[in-house]
Amino acid sequence: MTKHYVEYTYAGCFCSESSVKEIKSRGQKINLPDGAYAYHIFDREEVVQNGEKLTGKPKNYSPRHIKGEVYNMERVEREVKDNSILLFNMKNNKWRKVIRCRQGFIPIEKGDVFINL
Question: Of 26, 50, 65, which one is at a domain's C-terminal end?
């Protein structure tokens, strides 16, 4: 049986943290819990065989949905104080845009969906 899950992303000390919750359908409205800045949905096959629950690997990932504001290089230069490291990373990694979320600034990946603040 195919089960649907949402994985929430939270800011962590050195890298992002996450939590996973089963949901009824991929089309339902997803609300970010306190502290989360992003989520994506995935599916997993689960069957019970001889009384044991067998869980497949996650698959069919949705785009990452991120709550924040999009900044291009010009906006970073204009609005962000102490922006030298961010601008350096944007130039050297060829990031045309970044998103400012609870965690800070993160690069935008192909297919990301933005949830406006």
Answer: 65
- Alpha-carbon torsion (18, 57, 26, 99), positive or negative: positive
Q: How far apart are CA 12 and CA 8, in angstroms?
A: 12
Number of domains in the chain: 2
Residues 30 and 8 in one domain: yes
Size of the chain in residues: 117
Closest CA to 73 of 88, 59, 87: 87
- What's the CA gap between 93 and 108, in Å, rounded? 11
Identify which of 19, 26, 20 has the alpha carbon closest to the alpha carbon of residue 4.
26
Q: Which amino acid is at 98?
A: V
pLDDT digits (tens, 9 = 90+) for 13-57: 777 889 999 999 999 999 999 889 999 999 999 999 999 999 999
